[in-house]
């Protein structure tokens, strides 16, 4: 039999496989989402998200120090808010948990890139990302609060804000407010194509932020839609987004790939809590190897076209990558 093109030749030797590898992951591609709580000396494992922790500000600093040593240079902060109300007033309190965390982090570890989530759900008693009036999640009034929250974080020294609420026009509103407040270099990573997904469950457990009634389908996208994602991304770029995001990641690789093909801005993908949890749970049952699943999944997200990945695997992945060199 004459076979002239043998693909297996390029797979024959481990070193050759290294030479032909098209995608690689480095710790500098990763953003680690972290959960800040009040207190001192607190480092409590989150029950819905094993190997991830509720951290008081002092412990957050320690954790970030070890992340930097591993080569992970960016973090995304979420704050646990016990003081919830219907106006989300804690969301833009200058002395609130997140502004204090930003100040301390930027003071002690100026080399770490600090990003914060902008949305009202951890701060509202109803658990929605926007203000609720007569049972409806109102858009434009919410944008004003989001812009206030973003400026509050910028005043504390944040490097980038990440609106995750999916209100219309919020990127433009935030950009304008930041510029007016004298923060032209605070960047915006827009959760542009954020789907109404079941995969946020463990995260909502971590922040006690699940909606008390209804769901998020009037603002987050229908998982069945692709064209609509491209429209959302185009609008966010127009409004001034510096980075656009697709979320979740592994069930939406086609969206990442299409966005990569159509737009020239950096693309982020959020490998969300439920995707993380699926791998951990299956590994616990002995059904798959956790490390290999972690590498394969994050590599696939990058191969699809993501420049950067928000993942709860960031520390484990960076440790694994360090061990291999
Ligand atoms: C807040 C927010 C959510 C996530 C990130 N920011 C939850 C939600 O929209 O309900 C999910 C992250 C994850 O599941 O890992 N708007």
Structural key phrases:
TIM Barrel, 8-stranded parallel beta barrel, 18% strand, alpha/beta, single chain, binds ligand PBG
Q: Architecture, according to CATH?
A: Alpha-Beta Barrel
Distinct ligand kinds: ligand PBG
- The end-to-end span amounts to 41 Å
**Integer count of domains:** 1
Proportion in β-strands:
15-25%
- Portion of residues in helices? 25-40%
SS field, number of helical segments: 11
Stretches with pLDDT under 50, minimum 5 residues: none
Q: How many beta-strand elements?
A: 12
Estimated structural class: alpha/beta
CATH level-1 class: Alpha Beta
Describe this structure as you would to a colleague:
The protein is an alpha/beta fold and 325 residues long. The chain has a single domain, classed as TIM Barrel (Alpha-Beta Barrel). The chain has helices spanning 14-20, 57-70, 97-108, 140-156, 170-180, 201-207, 227-239, 253-262, 273-284, 290-304, 314-324; strands spanning 30-36, 43-46, 49-55, 74-79, 113-118, 132-133, 136-137, 160-163, 187-194, 243-247, 267-271, 308-311. The strands form two sheets. The protein has an eight-stranded parallel barrel with strand order 1-4-5-8-9-10-11-12, surrounded by eight helices. The protein has a two-stranded antiparallel sheet with strand order 6-7. Strand 4 (74-79), helix 3 (97-108) and strand 5 (113-118) form a beta-alpha-beta unit. Helix 4 crosses helix 5 (170-180). It starts with 13 loop residues before the first helix and ends with a helix. The model has no long low-confidence stretch (mean pLDDT 97). The structure holds ligand PBG. Ligand PBG binds next to helix 6. Residues 117, 119, 121, 129, 164-165, 200, 203-204, 272-273 line the site of ligand PBG.
